[in-house]
Each structure stands twice: as C-alpha cells, then as structure tokens.
Amino acid sequence: MNKDFHYYATYCAAFLAGYDHEESMIIAYSDQFTDVCTAAYLKSVKGPRSAATTQLQTELLDAPTDPVGLQNITRIWASFHFLPYDLKAKPKGLCSKRYLHKYRLICKPNGELVKETVELARGKTLQAAGIAMHVLADTWAHSYFAGTPSLVINNTNYHFYEIMEDGTRRQIEFKHSPSAPDDLDKSIYMNSLYQSNENSIMNLGHGRAGHLPDYSFVKYAYLPAWDDYNEMVKDNPSDYHHAFCQMITALSSLREEGGVFETGVYDTEKTTPYEDRIKEIINTRKADLCDEWRAFGEELSGERIEDFDPDKHKQEYILAEEKKDTFLGSFFLAAMAQKSMVTDRIFKSHNLLAGYSVEYDKRRKGIKDYRKLVEYMTERDEA
C-alpha cells in the first residue's frame, strides 16, 4: 500500500474507531513511518539497528544474499509487509524443504499472525497500534506474495491482465525503468528487473509486479507458479474495503478494556454512513489518493491533517536523555517487539529463513538490543 492508505486512510479508520484527532494522528504517523524506518534513518538518529522496519532500494542492492543476509531481509519484510498466512501450509505434491519454507511465508489476510500482531499492541503505545495497522493492511494489498526473495513465489509472466470496470481484460505490460512513472491509461507498470537467480533481491515481495498491488482501484488476474499456474484473480477494491473495515475492528478492540481482536470481522456499521464515499475513493483510478483520503478525514474530524514529515520527531529523540519515552523511542521498541514475535513464530515452525528467535529468558542468537526488548515485553506483561 502507499501513503494514501497507510497515512490518511488509517487516520480515518482510527477516528471512526473512536480515537480523537491527536491519537489518530499518532496511529497514522506510526503506520506510515513503518515504510520509512530504515537502517540509514536509524543510523542518522543513533537508534537501535534492530528497529528497522523497511529497507531502501540502495540498502537492498548492497545487501548480501548469503543465508545471513537473506535472514535479515526476511525478518524485515515478513514481519512488517508480507506477514505469513500459514506457517504450516503444505503445497500440492512433493517439494523440497527449501521450497516448502518459502511457500509457508506467502502473505494473506486473516492468518493467526494477524491476530497475534494486533494483540501484541494491546495495552501498549499508539505507535504499536500504528505498526499493527500497517501490517494488517499490507496482508490485503500484498496477498499471494512473500517477504523473502523467491523467483518461484513472486515472479510474473505474460499472463497478467487488468480487469476493467466493464469486465473486459487488458494485458498488463511491465517495464523496468526505476525513474519512469506508471502509465495507468495504458496499463503499463514499472517493475523490478528480471533475474533468474531464485534469491535475487529483484524477486522480493511484489517487486516483479511493481507498484500494481499497491493501487486500490486495480483488479487483476495472473498465474502464480506456487499455485500450479492456476489463474488467480486479485480484487483490490474489495480487499482494500475489507482492510479499511478490519482496521476499524482492530483499533476498536484495542480501545476496549478486556477486548479481543478476532480475524474475519469487519466493522461495516461504523462505515455505513460513508459507504459511497469510501468506495468512491478506493475505486478512483489515480496513482496517489492522498488528497481524497485527506479530505474525507478532515471532514470526519473537523481538524487539519498535517503533511507526513519523516523527520518530525528526530530532534526530540536525538536530544532526549531517556529515549524510550520519546515518540521514536516508543516506535522503535514496538517495532522490535513485532519483529521478534514474527521471527520467533517462523523459527518455531522449523523454518530458518528469518533467522533465530529471541527467547526472553535466555541469551540466544537473535535480534540485537535484547535487553531493551525484554524490558519492553516485561512492562507489557505487567500492564
């Protein structure tokens, strides 16, 4: 998903879930900041490197694809952008263990880890809630792709069609040109360069489909190799609507004392008065819907939604003596907890693609900043 949904639509969902303007801004900022918090950013503020929630293209190009390098990539992308649906899934027929481990990282909504992600944020900061909303929303947009490099799982081929509003099909043309914009009028989308190497970073996530899965208006059909080349139809307008309603459900549950988030539940009651408006925005054929979601959010709250500024909280963190109490400090701790939880679940499924898990009562191989994370989790358990 893009900033229009991760920032402005998340603000709308938070406000409809009962949060006030300031709370909704923190949740929305934290959601969008998940697409900003790179190793380079953390270095610039001298933050914990384990808190990285995404990677710059330059960081990926320099990233090694040996087992350790792949584990670092997978920890980030599977934890925050391509949450695995079923870590016990079995493909049809016989397959190698290597392929099985990648197959089990395929992202879909309403898996067990989505529930754990939301519950991990319960009783914690609004930053934690914002991270959870980013993860939840991406399970809808990034369905059928995996957060680990894999040509077999993530590749595209000539059979890739956009299904237009009248039901007709238009063949999609993918091109590799990092600086060129997508041509929505002609269904020409920029994608990553084809690399036959299974573990090339060009085969990470939906890179081979470019930004196409991040557009709410698009409905497309293609032949994923992992599903024996059976045609898959991805209906983003429907999925993005479900994502929006599910965010309201999740955020509402986090506000309730003793609340529990259940998957497969969508709060359509709170959206009913605005149903036509929401669907109109989602179906608008534009690469950037920030203005549309922003206008809707400001009408809901009567407040101004400020532009997203990735550097807004930098100085507070740099100058603070007690950094964990700052905005970024709270975000970093919540990010490490999410990454640790997902890594732990993948590791305990006997899959080392994301590396070793963290055990809170022992020192093991795992993410760094162990002591900070233990303190954070202890505080959560005592809350």
Short description:
This protein is mainly alpha-helical and 383 residues long. It has helices at residues 3-16, 21-33, 39-45, 57-62, 67-80, 97-103, 112-121, 126-141, 151-154, 236-255, 275-283, 290-301, 314-319, 327-348, 370-382, and strands spanning 160-163, 169-171, 173-175, 188-190, 219-222, 232-235.
Descriptive account of the structure:
By secondary structure, this protein is mainly alpha-helical. It has one domain (3-382). It contains 15 helices and six strands. The strands form two sheets. The protein has a four-stranded antiparallel sheet. α1 (3-16) runs antiparallel to α2 (21-33) and α1 crosses α10 (236-255). The longest helix is centred in the last third of the chain and has 22 residues, at 327-348. It is globular and about 50 Å long. The protein starts with a helix and ends with a helix.
